[in-house]
Amino acid sequence: MSAERTVATPATQPRAADQAVVTASVVPPRAAGRSLRATIGLGSSVRRPAAFPLLAVDCAAALLGTLLLAGPQRHPLLVAVLVVGVTSLNTRAALYRRVAVPSVLDELPVLAWQIAVTWGAAGLLAASFSALDPVSATTLASAAALQCVLSCAGRGAVYLRARRAVLRQPRPALVVGPGGVARRVADAVLRHPQAGVRPVGIVAEAQGERTEAAEGAELPVLRTLEELRRAVIQNSVRTVLVVGPDPGPEQIGWLRSLSASGCDVWAVDATQPPGYDAPGRRYRSGRIAGFPCRPLAPAGQRHRSISKRALDLVTSGILLFLLSPVLLVCAAVLRSSDGPGVIFRQERVGRDGRPFTLLKFRTHRPADPHEAATRWTVAGEQHMSGFCQFLRRTSLDELPQLWNVLRGDMSLVGPRPERPYFVAKFSQAYPGYAERHRMPSGITGLAQIQGLRGDTSIEDRCRFDNAYIDSWSFWQDLCILLRTAASLVRPSGS
């Protein structure tokens, strides 16, 4: 976990290591996105959340369902449990997310189950508290059935209106992916107008795909920023279909910018063989012209979580308070044994490529600032004092980073930050390295608990960091923190 030892041994040097030394300046990963938005001229459009009509329907159905309860049974606490319970369960079941071709029949089993669970919990609550009047099982079943009917009817009306709107005026769309696959999806969507999408162009990255994609169709193939800008403006594009393998780095930047500017981005699975399910994927009512699809959003947006920041604030504050004696002892011993300059400050690259000053206990004194910014590793320095070696071996030198977490520069869990010089170098050598900056950097992370600390593979570390970001959850953060705490019992250095 040590910030001074986050690079690999010569055996795992990046492919660009033998090339000319790159500049140490770092361009934020999203800079290209801002340039694209400014060039396209989309601005920051604000859309009415698609979840609001559905949320209003579910709340109204829950309130109307309580009409079957007797007057004394309609206690405000019981009504609140019903409304909050059903909306919370529906949110967890992704019933408020955007759907390509919505259908209430597809949602009926899940919706009925959520309502039954909520009314069952309300019945148990009424039977457990003396302040509430008990509710009979017949009344509970009748009220749940009424709420289910009302909710389905309301959702059906919302979906019917949405389908009629897109049939009257299909949404112009761009298809992003390899030419052959993108051409096949575009043709299929054009043959099925009930999807409410009308492809107006194909965005291909490879040079050889222009001819293949253009054969037998009039859709233009867009391969430059200028062509994309013209297509978006002329056709008022607000929908993007991503097909085939993962898009290239340039296309990823365009997708993020289009999504942030108001476009709906959908992943269309056009490569899965018939009869096989893509492992780990769940499509909620997602079918466009027979192809499974799911909504996409920039991963960075999904991790702007209040719960994650709350965990950082509470935990870092408590740890700083409890560990303050340890911090003082470490600082005093370092001051007496190694002289002044107890805290080591170094520029690191954090979220969205923004630099910040990382803090840690000083265990090594570089010859000059250039060495501190560009030296690969200081592992095995023989002149390091015994106490400094102890701090590094136990990761106690990382404790001042709790202040970085409290300030908001870092998070408890996330990709480890690196110096600008190496970020620029690794971003060129390893695909996906720059994508690690989609969320705040952390003191520990998924790569660290997998043993990828110190002199280990940058490529493996990058892969685990991106996997953590793509599958982030509050529970995963807790698990990583617990596993990190367990690993401190058997420290191996970092």
Polypeptide structure, described:
The chain is α/β, with parallel strands linked by helices. The chain folds into three domains: 10-27 and 304-487, no CATH class; 51-166, no CATH class; 170-297, Rossmann fold (3-Layer(aba) Sandwich), CATH 3.40.50. It is 49% helix and 11% strand. The protein has a seven-stranded mixed sheet. Strands 8-9 form a two-stranded antiparallel ribbon. The chain is flat. The termini are close together.
Spell out the key features of this protein:
11 strands; 49% helix; 494 residues; seven-stranded mixed sheet; alpha/beta; single chain; Rossmann fold; 19 helices; two-stranded antiparallel ribbon; flat; disordered N terminus
Topology:
Layout: H1 31-40, H2 51-65, H3 76-92, H4 104-128, H5 137-168, E1 171-176, H6 179-191, E2 197-203, H7 209-214, E3 221-222, H8 225-235, E4 239-243, H9 249-260, E5 264-268, E6 287-288, E7 291-296, H10 299-302, H11 306-322, H12 324-338, E8 343-349, E9 355-361, H13 369-374, H14 386-394, H15 401-407, E10 411-413, H16 420-429, E11 442-444, H17 446-449, H18 458-470, H19 474-487
Parallel strand pairs: 1-2, 1-4, 2-3, 4-5, 10-11
Antiparallel strand pairs: 5-7, 6-7, 8-9
Q: In short, what is this structure?
A:
The chain is an alpha/beta fold. It has helices spanning 31-40, 51-65, 76-92, 104-128, 137-168, 179-191, 209-214, 225-235, 249-260, 299-302, 306-322, 324-338, 369-374, 386-394, 401-407, 420-429, 446-449, 458-470, 474-487; strands at 171-176, 197-203, 221-222, 239-243, 264-268, 287-288, 291-296, 343-349, 355-361, 411-413, 442-444.
